[in-house]
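PROTEIN–LIGAND DATA SHEET

This sheet pairs a single protein chain with one bound small molecule, flavin mononucleotide, given as SMILES. Inputs appear in the order they were entered. The predicted three-dimensional arrangement of chain and ligand is reported afterwards as a token string under its own label.
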Amino acid sequence: MALLKTSYLGMELKNPFIAGASSLTSQRDTAKRLEDTGAAALVTPSLFEEQIQLESFVLEEEIHRFDNLYAEMTDLFPEIKHSGPEAHLRMVADLASSLEIPVIASLNAVQPETWVHYAGLLAETGAKALELNFYATPTDPSRSGKDIEQEQLAILRKIKEKVALPLSVKLSPFYTNPLHVIRSMEEAGADGFVLFNRFFEPLIDPQKERNLIRHTLSGSNDNGITLRFTGLIGGESKGDICASSGIMTGLDAASMILAGASCVQVVSTLYKNPVGNMAGLIEELESWMETKGYPDLYSFRGKLSAKNNPDRWAYRRAQYVKMLMDPAGVIKTYPSN
Ligand SMILES: Cc1cc2nc3c(=O)[nH]c(=O)nc-3n(C[C@H](O)[C@H](O)[C@H](O)COP(=O)(O)O)c2cc1C
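PREDICTION REPORTED AS:
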């Protein structure tokens, strides 16, 4: 039997499959099912400062809605306040104590001080590592990409100083040069990287002229950017690379490991298939390794990274250029419908 062991953020994992942050990993019963069907680790949903701010705001509004009508109400009732991150911290602590696999706590804050404060609180829950989810949609055109990166680096350094747990950074693919960001974050203390997050995107119903929520789950066609940057950085970075987005099958995982990933995170495939499908992913990878004669993960990890790839153009624009030079070939491959 092939050995699936790997390591991530200094932790030994029994296989490379991690259940990524989602609502599936916030509930004890689904988390337990993920553990029972083979998940090697689990990332909790992010503690979102924005959500706490929003909930506190709504609660304040509710409490004070009738203040003007019934003045006595302002004195009659004791002051009620939102409990802040308490409920989330309890959820993480509960998972960390009830599961045997390592629990990684994810954080997405807004203010630099809150990033550090919440990271400290999460570190006390029993989680084995922290995943910093640095994504925020830029809405201010006066801030440059460099400003945003510098702020993220400063936050990372401060968290590193305060928290002894290993740190991974879950990156957005929308940096001008993710490779430079990875190197700078490594220097600032990141122990690993999750490449990449995938975000909810807006949607407009043109008939009703209103915005809708687009609930998009990934498919295997959505892992191209992840594969490109995993291949480009694989074997070159000191930090572990955990591939994420569009990893739907055991063979997708094999591709990421061939490109240089240490492990993978899966989410959409667990929504599209029963949670128990985790076992199927593991079996598929294992059976591919056996067919190929690989005794363990290390015997093929990074075999097709840019560094080791016999095709030096594999992760660059060569395919696109090839298509431009051979339009007939493209038409044959993709006949119009
Ligand atoms: C319902 C749902 C909830 C999610 N919640 C979080 C979250 O709290 N924090 C986070 O970093 N990513 C979150 N994600 C993103 C996933 O962790 C993952 O990065 C993304 O879905 C891409 O992986 P996939 O292609 O395997 O789905 C969520 C995704 C889904 C579908």
